[in-house]
Amino acid sequence: MKRPPILDDPMETIIAAALDAAGIAYKHDRVDAKASQGLDFYLPEMDLYIEVKQFHSDRIAEQMSRAPNVIAIQGIGAAVAFARMLGAVKRF
Question: Among residues 52, 25, 24, which one has the least CA distance to residue 38?
């Protein structure tokens, strides 16, 4: 899936670009909040969710309880590392 037309969060932009480059289909909560259960990304082929946070917040525990398989990415360094682990993106 191509990234949503408006992604103002730089960390979500990094993750979306990496998923796109790796050819991993996803739904973003801005486009399909129901499928993503209000988490940032849903990867339907893997039945996996990704929640991206710049910093820890009290809200993260509630968000993580929405789905059984959630990857939490906290901090810009973690977002870049995750993107690099996908092997699709070398630098940001």
Answer: 52
